[in-house]
């Protein structure tokens, strides 16, 4: 009798483990298919990649769905209110996927994210230096370059004036640049230098 009870308990445990394993495999399969669909939304880019943020056009891009956003970890974005767009995927995909997407802003913000071949996120960084926007007496042009060695150079050329109630004060004009450099390893780790200001 004891043997039958032990045999029954072992059978139930084994079946339970098998069901859990099957469910896990199904979940991984669904995740993998979702990731494939996500990747297909990016066009393949060419090196050297040059981006002028003010020239980015979104008219022909299709915004990500809520299902896509889970790969970007954008929990604070509501796809019904703010659109996030795929920009492109870097051509070197041997060890990791490197994709660029656009966050909503006055001028869309390019962000690079890297993933393992299984769809696990490795790294995410904004490509721009930041600071471009509309303000009184303030204009800027942001440029980003990524070469085939996965070196990144990002620069903002800025012109600013002090303002009064009539607008920009002409003799307060300043020209300067902000820039930073970065690299992406073959395995997908992204690192950037500190932003430097130069007059």
From TrEMBL:
<protein>
    <recommendedName>
        <fullName>Lipoprotein</fullName>
    </recommendedName>
</protein>
């Amino acid at each position: 009798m004891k043997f039958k009870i032990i045999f029954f308990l072992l059978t139930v445990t084994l079946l339970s483990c098998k069901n859990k394993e099957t469910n896990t495999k199904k979940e991984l399969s669904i995740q993998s298919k979702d990731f494939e669909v996500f990747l297909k939304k990016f066009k393949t880019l060419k090196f050297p990649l040059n981006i002028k943020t003010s020239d980015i056009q979104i008219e022909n891009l299709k915004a990500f769905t809520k299902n896509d956003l889970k790969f970007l970890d954008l929990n604070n974005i509501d796809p019904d209110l703010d659109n996030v767009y795929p920009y492109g995927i870097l051509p070197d995909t041997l060890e990791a996927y490197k994709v660029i997407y656009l966050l909503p802003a006055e001028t869309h913000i390019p962000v690079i994210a890297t993933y393992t071949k299984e769809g696990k996120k490795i790294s995410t960084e904004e490509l721009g230096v930041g600071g471009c926007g509309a303000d009184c007496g303030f204009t800027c042009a942001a440029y980003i370059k990524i070469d085939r060695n996965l070196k990144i150079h990002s620069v903002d050329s800025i012109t600013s004036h002090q303002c009064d109630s009539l607008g920009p004060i002409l003799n307060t004009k300043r020209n300067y640049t902000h820039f930073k450099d970065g690299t992406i390893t073959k395995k997908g780790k992204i690192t950037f230098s500190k932003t430097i200001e130069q007059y």
